[in-house]
User: What shape does this take?
Amino acid sequence: MKGATFLARGLAGASLMLCATSGTDVHAADAPSPACVPPTSVASTPEQTAWQLFVAATCPVNASQYPYVTWQTWIEQNQLYGGGAALAAGERPRFHMSPLAALLRAKADAMDKQKKGGGKDAKAGGAHARAALPDVANQNCNSHTWSGRTICEEARLNPDAQQYVVANGLNTRPGQEKFVAAGSVFKFPAPSVEIKADWIQLAGCSNPPQGVHVENVGGTCYALGGIHLISKLVDKWIWATFEPQNATTNPQRCKVLGCNDPWGSSPATSQGASTQLTAPLKALMTQAKLAPEWFNYRLDGVQVDFLDAQGKPTRLGNSIIEGDNAGNPQAMAVSSCITCHDLSSINAKGDEQDPDFIIGTPPALPAGYVPRDFVWSLTLALPPPSN
Assistant: This one.
């Protein structure tokens, strides 16, 4: 990709390398651009809104040290819910394994044991997966992916979402139990945004993938292969997912569900072939002074409801997050972010429902369970559930 920029970024005293073929640097010290202010209402289309949110969250903060972009200044879910060690100023939170991948693996192990007479059901396996998630282990990522690559994950909540969780005591499981017992309703404020980022571990730092955001973390380089973004600007949230156009890091991009972005991509639909940015999106990124590699990221699609205008189930998934990391890109055929997240629920005893690959209108919750406003990160509140 012409003008591609690679940033091999070291943390916590590691050496820094900056190699820019375009000769363009990120002017993080400049005055904030209007493009870096997140929208407070929806635009003319969900896709335009998704890009406005993405660009604002990806605006540069620092050019040569962590945090590099705005969303990296937000709290990581393990720090919020008590599963991570305290961080020094400017320290990067450790990557962790995908909770979804851990849960699906535990379910598979439980079913295998059940077939062999072990007597352990899938529900018990799900509880074990949550309890066994790493707390502060150094970059404890998933090497049992579909492709065999090691993929790491992090999830960030913006200050509005963080404040809601903390103010209501939802960052602990007893706090959530008390919240439910009081008859309170989970409802995040409209400015709330969450971002999930999946990073692909690279064999080295000398030959980075073109057009992909790469960071050097403790001497190991990671490519940002998948980004989920959700925004509470609408009642059921806006669900958007992004991937870079690179056949090496993202060979399954758009292959299962196709990509659809009538606002930011030309052509609007694709099955994995590279597309061009539309003039409005390119202008927005330029105004925000995004680093060159971000111009190569594309929106896979957006969800705002369980069904489309024709009453058919909407589907959305990311070839890295739900595909490779969770174990099988073809599983995306029955992937719906909004439906899966609607299952996030808890009762007054702290028991909760497990996520699942389902599409369309979700089933009714069991008696006594209260929906948690589509937010799965709440399941990480300690101590883990007993169910």
Residues 99-115 form the longest helix (17 residues).
